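Record type: monomer structure entry
Structure origin: computed from sequence
Chain ID: A
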Amino acid sequence: MSEEPIAIKPGSTLRFRVEDPQRGVESSTWSLVGAKKKGDLYFGGREIMAELKLSLHESGITRMAWTSAAATGRLEPGADRLLSRWTDVEDLGNGWSLVLLLSIPDSSLSQLLPPLPEQPPKATVALPAAGPGRTVQVRVLLGTPDSGGLRLEGEMLEVGMMLLGDGSKVWVTAWDHETTAKAEAQLVDVRAHAMAHGAGDRPVPRAWAWGHDDDSGIPIMLDAGDPRPADAIPAVIPRYNGPLNVFVREIEADP
């Protein structure tokens, strides 16, 4: 993992992505933003977070919703901006809970985007790719202000830690495991949805999805990368600084 600064103080932003410079591929960049004066936490893809984000409120309610700015022109006046809602967390003991899972399958890694000189890069933690047939799973853990120590078994990487405005603690870890057939099927579905909504007409499209974990009920997110078929992706990726190219959808729950 790169030696980037770890965000620790309330109001900080922790950015991370998976990358493999040797293969020339990377995931989307993800941002975790802590509230400066409250115990709220916000998460989303960096490119679309100003429009759509996951809000984990100190009340215990988690929401996926359009921002008020994005709702204008996208939704009918007065329409609910809410897309999904959660109240479940996975209790880990000693004041800690698992509150969010993000899966980044190796098959979703996309060609590196050329940097934009007019946009200076921001500190971003680079996580190593897990390799073909594997998935990097990022787990967001939340501790109460008086939470104690927490022991996690297995091999993992620490993405970063931060404090929230109410004294709550956030610990972000990364693990790798085999990509399941179910996850690959979800990738196919998410990409097909993106293509059906015009992703093939965009210069550098990306896709991701969200849903509920089957076992714990907590929020899950899936990075689907570039949704275009391999033969439709140009050999040279253009340097692009235009409208959003991110396509999102909710993962349908198992029957």
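Annotation 1: Confidence is low (pLDDT under 50) at residues 1-5.
Annotation 2: Residues 13-250 form one domain.
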